[in-house]
Amino acid sequence: xxxxxxxxxxxxxxxxxxxxxxxxxxxxxxxxxxxxxxxxxxxxxxxxxxxxxxxxxxxxxxxxxxxxxxxxxxxxxxxxxxxxxxxx
Length: 88
Fold this sequence. Notes:
Distance between the termini: 22 Å
Number of helices: 5
Number of domains: 1
Order of helices and strands: HHHHH
Radius of gyration: 16 Å
Shape: globular
């Protein structure tokens, strides 16, 4: 079964051109060795236990990289994830 589509999904699916931001993020996804970076960070990343469950490490690493590439603060990064389909 497919997921329900939103109005934004319908609008974006008809988009004709890829933005520079989307091109950049696609290139970075291909260039960065995510498995290697995750292996380096894994021993230091918090484990699930008491308290709030941490986000998956791969997700957090990508958010940290986005913050560096686009010079975003933590609140700006959070807003960006809600607002920008390409960064999500």
